[in-house]
Amino acid sequence: MNSKSPDAISRMTEGGKLLSQILHQLLDAVQPGGIPLEVDKLAKQLIAQVGGSPSFMTVNNYQWATCISVNEGVVHGVPTTTPFNVGDVVGVDVGLLYKGYHTDTSWTKIVQKSIHSASSGQEFKIENNAEKFLRTGEQALKTAITKAIAGNRIGHISQAIQETVEGAGYSVVESLVGHGIGTKLHESPQVPGVLTRPIEKTPLLQVGMTIAIEVIYAAGQPEIMYGNSDGWTLVTKDGSLSGLFEQTVLITDSAPRIITPF
Question: How big, in percent rounded to 5, are the helix, strand and coil portions of the chain?
Answer without folding.
Answer: 30, 30, 40
